[in-house]
Amino acid sequence: MKRLLLLPGTQLILLAALLVCVSYTEVFTQTLETNLPITNANSEIYATVYNNNTIYIGGDFTYVGPKTGSGVAINNVTGIAMPDFPYVNGVIYAVASDESGGWYIGGNFTLVGGMARKNIAHIKADKSVDFNWDPQANNDVYAIVVSPDGNTVYVGGTFRISYGSPSIGGGDRDNIAALNATDGSATTWNPGANDGVFAIAVSPDGLTIYVGGGFTFFGNSDRNRIASINISSNTATVWNPSADQTVKVLEVSTDGSTVYAGGEFSTIGGQTRNFIAALNSSDGNATGWNPNADSYVYALALSGSTIYAGGNFNNIGGQLRNYVAELNNTTGEATSWNPNANNYVNAIYLSGSTIYVGGNFTTIGGELRNRIAALSTSTGLADVWDPNIGSTVNTIGIYGSMVFVGGNFNSCGGQNRNSIAAIDATTGNVKTWNPNIYFEGGGGNINSMAISADGQTIYVGGYFNKVGALDRNNIAAINVTDGAATSWDPNASDVVNAITVSGTTIYVGGQFYNGGTPGITIGGEDRNYIAAINATDGKATSWNPNANGNVFVLAISGSTIYAGGDFNDGGSPGTQTIGGEDRNYIAAIDLTTGNATSWNPNANGNVKALAISGTTIYVGGGFNDGDTPGGITIGGQVRNNIAAIDLSTGNATSWNPNANGPVYTLAIAGTTIYVGGGFSDDGDDQILTIGDENRNYIAAIDLTTGNATSWNPNANSTVYAIALSFTNEKIYIGGNFSSISGSDNYSFAGMDDLNNSALPVEVTSFNASIAKSEVNLAWQTATEVNNYGFEIERSQTSNVKSETWEKIGFVQGHGNSNSPKNYSYTDAQLNNSTSIQYRLKQIDFDGKFEYSNSIEVVLQTPVSFALNQNFPNPFNPTTVISFQVPIASKVMLKIYDIMGNEVAELVNGEKPAGNYDVIFNGHNLASGVYFYQLHAGSFIETKKLILMK
Predict the structure, then answer these.
(1) Same structural domain for residues 833 and 905?
(2) Which end of the chain has the lower number of beta carbons within 10 A, N or C?
(3) CA 232 to CA 223: how far, in whole Å?
(4) Rounded to an integer, what distance in angstroms lies between the CA atom of residue 836 and that of residue 826?
């Protein structure tokens, strides 16, 4: 792993920061990757694999997208979220436009755009957080309304008077307040409610405020869940509809005569009204209008003779209407308009002929739409606008061309991905690759993944019966290029937990078994919990260890496969549990015979994770001394949930991190093992959870001492998967956490460890040849063991050697091979240099690497001026322009449009003799034909290039 490099002058600054922020010293040992996507809330990632600059993640998610926070402003035409919008770290329940392009937001959050804000904030039109407006509510904010004159912001929620500190706006306010729109201070208006306020509406004349919630006392009067108050008074008016349960939403008709209410009530305004009602604004009585919903109503929007309602209902207005409906405001009957959402609706906002709807649905208006959609008011169909939001939408606001959406999501603009996704490790973008793995009828997940030796196939196991349109039960092979399932189909009868690849054989562990009645369980054969599958035809081989319980993890070393699970003798020693022997929770199986070897650590609890390094296998799981401290748990020693076992004797070594909770995943890099699981301090920071330190759910343990290093991502929930990339020196983490390394990340994160340096292994030599302005590298291996591939590194100088190396490419290895393999790489990106050095960094699948000797290439000075055709051409948006200069010259390279106007200057200055490559980026130019011209001394040449977007 790379170490932190400090530029001259920065060391003193960092030291000063450490002196001030002592409690954060450990944070400097890792850097979180901020460009990686996240999955939808409440999902889990069980498997991660890195291959060829791609991160594969598997779990039970349905969505993967960029981390945007819980509030975004979205263009109403493109559906694209506004870039650089302030990140909100919690839930947003309410939004109101400030009518100047900014937004007031309320909810349950502590940070907005990196600025401390307690549950309420103002985001200005320039996307900055209003520094001067900071009311600091001491509990959730559920309703925000701006007065017609824009001077006052009315706020409702569950903030309460807390003696010794203000509840909101610097004042003591119970559940409702009026805030100054300039500085956020509470005004003298203070009606007070004895319970939460969830809805606020202002009459058209701006004189009356209607309030709904869960209160029974409001404005110094008994008022059950609904009330009104004069804007200049602190006392409730006589208007008193008295609902029997919570009121969630209020809307006032344009003429002010009617107040529409939705919520959880069954009586209101003196009448039986189920969840929705129209109330006379004069006397508070319910009118005859009665849509009679069968469940809660959370959202209302008025439009002339029509009222739109959203909620958790399936019947309303006398018709079957799922979660959203259009109601006649005279009869209360549902119209024919029927978007038919598949889950509840929380928010509705009408804008012209479009109605924006938000909630928890994934289909609406006849289209797949995740949690938000734009519906036609005439047809009810969803239009092409599709922001695609990762989790529930609670509120919608509109100003100009922007639609503000708030909720408890953390991502907007992502991709629908069922159980598996591929992520570009450089850009963080979700790739178009989409196998779409699921269980028909609902659910499905991926538990394990493994890459073939040639890197072209990813094997997946879990609980599913579909891969795209193909039937695949619990195990499949996926092409890494197009995401399609191959014809390989072992057809497991139950869940697959573990997959590992060895040459042309795929070893599989899981929950498939015959249940006492011999039958086909996997690969066309009867195999209990463990099997070997031919990589070509998907058939089970004759290898058959026949376990008596689940196999959770597999690891291969030489001619032996190690299995961990919950197979055990149940207290009856002598029982054959796996490989024809009595083995409890862990075993070593001969890859030829399928028999268990004599190696027998004999764990007392399940084994979930294995990692091999040299002569030691590291084991994680649920084995521990429990209620019998001092009892033998594995390898003849007391080891809690993690141990190092000698591969020869089966005995536990002295290495003992002693985790206080289960360990589910292990990954080794150099002298460090990364550990994920369920260990945590349970809120007591003094508890030592693993490696003699307090570490929550993830840790890095020194392989020599067993102590935790200073690396401390501090996840807030379980870590199930860790994958290491030794090409870009990152650690990829999956689980069910929602926060890690001090940042909101749902289920997935990537980071580095600035403490760690991986161990080297041997690598072959190589040679170079020169062709024009290119250097051709070639190398050969005699045999390969566990060879992931080669990074090509270059050190390029003018006259002297340099120790500054840069990665310029990567070539995939052959994994394991006993025959010579030839490799090559062409370096066409040469700058002005007379001497270039190259070296190879050979990397194993387990992350070990070593450098080859370096070789030097001496380039000849060009004998003439030349301007080469750009490549590629056409291009979008970048291309390379190459030229050569035989003597030191004043050089100008410029780009012109077809009218002869200069649009870019790429080079302007003295250049020594040499070959040059210049990258031109046309991202800010329109598609079309352009010209590039080189002036070098008396040499002038012009060529054409084509930008095609």
Answers:
(1) no
(2) C
(3) 19
(4) 14
